[in-house]
Design a protein that fits this description.
The protein is about 75% helix and about 0% strand. The chain is mainly α and about 280 residues long. The protein has one domain: MetI-like (MetI-like fold, Orthogonal Bundle), CATH 1.10.3720.10.
Length: about 280
């Protein structure tokens, strides 16, 4: 049966476009006001700039020390993702392929950990990281991201692995493949859609995170982009023109990454939502 284009469909499309434009409004204000002088920004923040001030980006680049903070953010995001993918995929595979009451209990604990507010464990986190010598270092922050990100990542992998037939693994074992070989050579390549999904989701979280780096990274030379951007907001002065330019510089890399890979999010989550 043919799907007819009705007035209801047109109405829903117009409504979807309007909602989409509504979500783009904050981006408009950030980009437009990052190109204004401070005086013009305060006078009329909604209008287009009368004179484009590219110098805002030049000054923000220098004040942020952008190459350094970009490198710090990139290192933290990349290595956190590598660890989360390796740890969570192996853990989820073990829990799915070896069902037992204990494994089900462990999985339930990880799922329950997803609802714990970060603010409720800030003080214990500082004490633990200090006792283990992780405070004030990028590796220490990466380890913290392992702990906070493994629950959601393993939950997504857990649902996706259920869709992989056991027969593929059994054939590999018959051919003499070791358990680790079965996982890394057979199972892990099949997890590509979900791997891309968790990398995207975790990258958006880690790249834009402010509170955890603020607690762990005490050395100014180790600042991430969000931490460096906060320097424009002092107690008595707020440099909105430079702050907005720095926000554009900070979100541009992750937005480009997200837009180039977003199609895999729906593919991965949809594939992992149905068993069989």
């Amino acid at each position: 049966m043919e799907n007819k284009y009705t007035g209801r469909t047109l109405t829903l499309e117009i409504l979807g476009i309007l909602i989409g434009l509504l979500f783009l409004v904050p981006f408009y204000f950030v980009i437009v006001n990052s190109l204004k002088s401070f005086a013009e920004l305060l006078t009329n923040s909604a209008a287009l700039p009368k004179d484009i001030v590219w110098n805002n980006y030049t000054r923000a680049w220098k004040i942020l020390d952008y190459p350094k903070v970009f490198t710090n953010s990139l290192i933290i995001t990349v290595f956190s993702n590598l660890g989360l993918v390796a740890i969570s995929s192996m853990a989820a595979y073990r829990l799915v392929r070896n069902p037992s009451k204990f494994n089900n209990f462990v999985f339930a604990i990880f799922v329950a950990a997803m609802v714990i507010p970060f603010q409720s464990i800030m003080i214990p986190l500082v004490r633990v990281t200090t006792n283990f010598g992780l405070m004030g270092s990028i590796p220490g922050l990466i380890v913290c991201y392992f702990g906070f990100g493994v629950s959601l990542t393993m939950f997504l992998y857990h649902g996706f692995i259920k869709t992989i037939p056991r027969e593929i693994e059994e054939s590999a074992r018959v051919d003499g493949c070791s358990p680790y070989g079965v996982f890394w050579r057979i199972v892990f390549p099949l997890l590509k859609p979900m791997t891309v999904t968790v990398i995207l989701l975790n990258s958006l979280w880690i790249w834009n995170d402010y509170l955890l780096p603020l607690l762990v990274l005490t050395d100014p030379d180790l600042r991430t982009i969000p931490l460096a951007t906060s320097a424009f907001f002092a107690q008595y002065t707020k440099q909105w023109d430079l702050a907005l330019a720095s926000l554009v510089l900070g979100v541009t890399p992750i937005v480009i990454f997200f837009l180039s890979m977003q199609k895999h999010i729906i593919e991965g989550i949809t594939a992992g939502s149905v068993k069989g």
